[in-house]
Amino acid sequence: MVEEEISNSPAPEAPPPFALVSVGKITENHDDALMVNLTVSFGGGEPEAIVDYAYRVSDPFGLAPVLKDWLAANPGFPVDPYVPPPAPTPEELRAQMPPLTARQFRLGLVSGGYSPAQVTQAIDTMPEGPNKETAKIEWQYATTFNRMHPLIATVGAALGLTEGQIDAMWTAAVNL
Fold first, then answer.
1. 56: which residues sit within 8 A by CB, 6+ positions away?
2. 49-72 burial string, b = 16+ CB within 10 Å, else e?
């Protein structure tokens, strides 16, 4: 029988799950956080860039304690002030409007003083061709309508509606 020699020496330490390699830029955020552009390595592997890690002093998990120590050791590191994003354009706001069901869309038209027959008539006055045929199909068979769909602008213009009026009707129709 062969006896194995038992070693009392400690087992080799496993690499930490992650290590902070470098900090590139720190920017204040609007919600009492810092956005930190940093590079880390995982499990002792090659460094991997992480862009804009959200850091909060109160966070006891993940990279937060490591960053807290790093910031304490580097108090002069520049922190860029928060710059709010520009206000969304009217087109961006329209793109974020929720879709309407066919029922909501038609009830919204009626609430705005327009009948579905007027929409049909506006489509019928379009020049012959694929755009007109597509508009007919959309109007008759669509189950939902998106604010940015070209049919909305076409019919709105034919009814003499401004983009703002369409927006107001759309917003009201969401709750119908």
1. 32, 33, 34, 64
2. eeeebebeeeeeeebbebbbebbe
* Secondary structure in 3-state letters for the chain: CCCCCCCCCCCCCCCCCEEEEEEEEEEECCCCCEEEEEEEEECCCCEEEEEEEEECCCCCCCCHHHHHHHHHHCCCCCEECCCCCCCCCHHHHHHCCCCEEHHHHHHHHHHCCCCHHHHHHHHHCCCCCHHHHHHHHHHHHCCEECCCCHHHHHHHHHCCCCHHHHHHHHHHHCCC
| Tokens 């669509």, residue located | 142
This prediction's pTM: 0.62
Q: Strand pairing partners for 39?
A: 22, 49
For 46-72, what is each residue's pLDDT tens digit?
A: 887 777 889 998 999 888 998 999 999
The answer to whether residues 102 and 143 touch, using CB atoms and an 8 Å cutoff, is: yes
So what's the pLDDT on residue 63?
85
Report the distance separating Cα 143 and Cα 164, nearest Å.
24
CA dist., res. 154 & res. 151, Å (int): 5
Give the total residue count for the chain.
Answer: 176
Name 101's Cβ contacts closer than 8 Å, sequence gap at least 6.
Answer: 143, 144, 145
